Amino acid sequence: MTEERIAVEPASDVAAFGYHEVTSEPLLSGFLRRGAIQFTVTPAEFERHLDIAASAGVEPVLVTQLDQPLSKRPVLLTFDDGGKSAMYAANALERRGWRGHFFVITKRVGERTFLDAREIRELRDKGHLIGSHSHSHPDIFRDLAFDRMVAEWRDSRDRLADLLGEECTTAAVPGGHISAAVLRSADAAGVRSLFTCDPVLRPRLEGGCRVFGRFLVKRTTSHAQMTSLLDYEGWKTALIVRRTKDVVRRAVPGLFRLYLSRRTRESDVRAAQQVGADSKVTRL
């Protein structure tokens, strides 16, 4: 019996999930900063998330497939920063026949805890999508002047195009703090698919750029919440939580910048080591 296939229009809901590091050794991958702790999940926990997705009948797709007829509601898996653990995450997906989106900070390429050029090409050659996470990863991207935003996107896109030998038109906003100017800057720089950190299901258009929301997975994300979100439930609640936090951040910008500067201080080794112990706790 042939499975009936339904066309998913570009404006249809899309459930996208954002990961960062997938590792039990945080000193070996990505940013070594206190703020990275909450976004680091262990390989065992990541595998459990994939098991939950598989049990729900989910088959993750790439953003480039959204204009094709799909048999299921689309789920996208993305990975920010381009830390070394991306190779493990990609392999875990490949074992299931799945592919993901890997967003690279081009200024960090080749650094000790980040992917090098060979590894990025390997991910692309295995069918994963490589995108831009800006060139230098400004922590509050929306605070930049518009021209600087555009330059961050263009510089990163150009470097990835040189590295991969093909155009890069997909990107993710670093830091997660967006504004109308951030979205316009991506469109002006030639980005055609942009991922934010706002947990919304319905994509929107900004000029010629499709803007997708994402739920950012943390080490505290429960199995029950993952199950619900994969079933397209609980997104409105997640959005309310995020927007409430953003209201507070905008109300006290000075305090927020001070807080962020401490959370993003490089080489916070003791904090990074602590995640190895803390993240062993599985929340059901």
Describe the protein in words.
It is a single chain. The chain contains 9 helices and 13 strands. It has one domain (6-278): Glycoside hydrolase/deacetylase (TIM Barrel, Alpha-Beta Barrel), CATH 3.20.20. The strands form 4 sheets. Strands 8-7-6-2-13 form a 5-stranded parallel sheet. It has 284 residues and is of the alpha/beta class. Helix 1 (43-55) runs parallel beside helix 6 (223-230) and helix 4 packs across helix 5 (180-188).
Summarize the structure.
The protein is an alpha/beta fold and 284 residues long. 37% of the residues lie in helices and 15% in strands.
Distance between the termini: 38 Å
**SS element count, helices:** 9
The CATH class assignment is Alpha Beta
Q: How would a crystallographer describe the biggest sheet?
A: 5 strands, parallel
CATH level-4 homologous superfamily: Glycoside hydrolase/deacetylase
Name the quaternary structure: single chain
In percent, how much strand structure appears in the residues? 15-25%
Strand order of the main beta sheet, please? 8-7-6-2-13
Q: Please estimate the helix content.
A: 25-40%
What is the CATH third-level topology name?
Answer: TIM Barrel
Record the SSE blueprint:
Layout: E1 6-7, E2 15-19, E3 21-22, E4 40-41, H1 43-55, E5 69-70, E6 75-81, H2 86-94, E7 101-104, H3 117-125, E8 129-132, H4 146-164, E9 170-172, H5 180-188, E10 193-195, E11 204-206, E12 209-212, E13 215-216, H6 223-230, H7 235-251, H8 253-263, H9 269-278
Parallel strand pairs: 2-6, 2-13, 3-4, 6-7, 7-8, 9-10, 10-12
Antiparallel strand pairs: 1-5, 11-12
Helix pairs in contact: 1-2, 1-6, 4-5
